[in-house]
Amino acid sequence: MQDVIDCFIDCEDKISSSTFTYSSNEVLEFLRKPLENIGFKVEKGKSKESKIHVPVLFGLNNQIDKSFNADAVSSDGKVVIEVEAGRAVANNQFLKDIFQASMMFQVEYLVIAVRNEYRNSDDFSKIYSFLETLYVSSRMQLPLKGILLIGY
């Protein structure tokens, strides 16, 4: 996970939400090479062929019946990365990311990257507080070993 964090640190001067208002796809484009260099497969576009499909359900003959898309996935399939911009808090996209990663076959860790600043709101702090409450309360157990929240 430190390698993933280092990718964001290395790109910080290019993606910082205090300076730039890039979309999540634009941020992902800056992160593509660094993430690929540490063994991640990174979404290349919005077409069906460019997306990364992570299996959720299997049917007859072990055929994939259902999959969810991820922005990036580790070579062993255990780490999924989702990069969010404006929708992270406003549309509760981070909750959808948590749900989908929890359903993905063999995924153990979720990395959610969110803007620190979005329309005079600190999305990172809001999601951090939510995740802290989720883990401290112990009322809901997720099948993930961990969630890494990165603010950019």
Give the SSE layout.
Blueprint: H1 2-15, H2 24-37, E1 40-42, E2 52-58, E3 64-70, E4 72-74, E5 79-83, H3 87-90, H4 93-103, E6 109-114, H5 123-137, E7 146-151
Parallel strand pairs: 5-6, 6-7
Antiparallel strand pairs: 1-4, 2-3, 4-5
Number of helices: 5
Total strand segments: 7
Spatial order of strands in the largest sheet: 1-4-5-6-7
Radius of gyration of CA atoms, rounded to a whole number: 15 Å
Explain how this protein is built.
The strands form two sheets. Strands 1-4-5-6-7 form a five-stranded mixed beta sheet, sandwiched between helices. It is α/β, with parallel strands linked by helices and 152 residues long. The chain contains five helices and seven strands, in the order H-H-E-E-E-E-E-H-H-E-H-E. Helix 1 crosses helix 2. The model has no long low-confidence stretch (mean pLDDT 95). The protein is globular, with a radius of gyration of 15 Å.
Give a brief description.
With 152 residues, this protein is of the alpha/beta class.
Please supply descriptive tags for the structure shown above.
about 150 residues, alpha/beta, five-stranded mixed β-sheet, two-stranded antiparallel ribbon, 7 strands, about 40% helix, globular
